[in-house]
Automatic annotation (TrEMBL):
Annotated Pfam families: TRM13, zf-TRM13_CCCH, zf-U11-48K
The name this protein goes by in its record: tRNA:m(4)X modification enzyme TRM13
EC number: 2.1.1.225
Region (Disordered): 387-408
Keyword annotations from UniProtKB, A to Z: Metal-binding, Methyltransferase, S-adenosyl-L-methionine, Transferase, tRNA processing, Zinc, Zinc-finger
Root EC class: transferase
Family: Belongs to the methyltransferase TRM13 family.
GO BP of this protein: tRNA methylation
Amino acid sequence: MAASTPSPRDTGFPAEGRCSYYVEKKKRFCRMVVAAGKRFCGEHAGAAEEENTRKRILCPLDPKHTVYEDQLAKHLKKCNSREKPKPDFFIQDINAGLKDETEIPEQLVPISSLSEEQLENLIKKLRKASEGLNSTLKDDIRSHPALLDALNDPRNGDSAIKHLKQQASILGNIEKLKLLGPRRCFVEFGAGKGKLSHWVDIALKDAEKVHFILVEKVTTRFKVDGKHRKENSVFERLQIDIQHLCLSKIPVLREGKLPVVGIGKHLCGVATDLALRCLIETYAASYEERNEEPLAKRIKNDKTETKVNTLAKEGNERNVPEKWSPVAGIVIALCCHHRCDWRHYVGKEYFRALGLGAVEFHYFQRMSSWATCGMRKTLLEAADITTERQDRQNDSSEEHDDGGCRVADDGADGLPGHTFQHPQWRLKTDSYC
């Protein structure tokens, strides 16, 4: 009988200065560095013969790591997962919107569980609400010379080129709106690595007094905002949820009175609503509540006419808006627009004016995905099905069973747009949110 093949644990040895603990799942020894005179790293110290008396337990703040049980109290004071002190610009739910418990039912059944009559009523409400709306959006795809070299770099793959084109188009639209200039603060919501602010900074070249605030609620690797060393540009990263961000409490905005330009790439529906509330409801409204005259206007009121003309001329040369506003503009490219929440939604008044509420909003969210789901049919196929159905209706001598599949015509009762397949209906609709 042949001898069994020895396992790596039997024949292998840990590297010098590395942990001697064998990780069964990875079929290798742990590669952590050990302290002088020790065989095991801190994570696997419980396996050491000389430390068998000490027990390691999961950290209650983060079960991804362990700690000695007798040192738990000390560890909790310095654990990276501990709750940290809140900064001044953190105000709980300041941008969340009012929460009306009476509007939102405790449990809403999935749209697939609705009866045919209930779904028909929802579709009728959607048709009525969308009457007269121009649902056709005009594409405005632009570019910017700041990204020309990167777009033509052969080392960039398809994914990188895709993002560069998107960033170039956003940058081109920012320039079109005359928001690309000196003496302002760009707030990037959902910043991630900070690539959009990076390209805005490059496009601004040597513009003076430009501040960037990058808002991201999670820790991000490979950030690019920390690599900038321009004297006229300052980058500041805030790890905070947009829901709790109060811009008027940030020192550079409170003291410098810089007009804010809100930017973002790939913000979902909820984040977009929160960003709009953050900029308009809390930040811009704070100036109105204080009735505080902006710095630029105070300068004009205090100076003589000659100095005013000089300042205006200088402002025109530097592309500074004549009329100062706390929020100069907002340029956001959305993604996942259906991922929104009734509490945070900024269009509640419009919904209520149409006789709609939280329940309809909940189901319209899900119905909006029908326009882009993978089961949608081509217009030609839909036309063939419609013709076939009309032929069946014209044949009054026979009764036909359509198998529960109903098709909406392109007449007054139909919804213009793409076709989609539902388990019980095949309809036409646009993407509504």
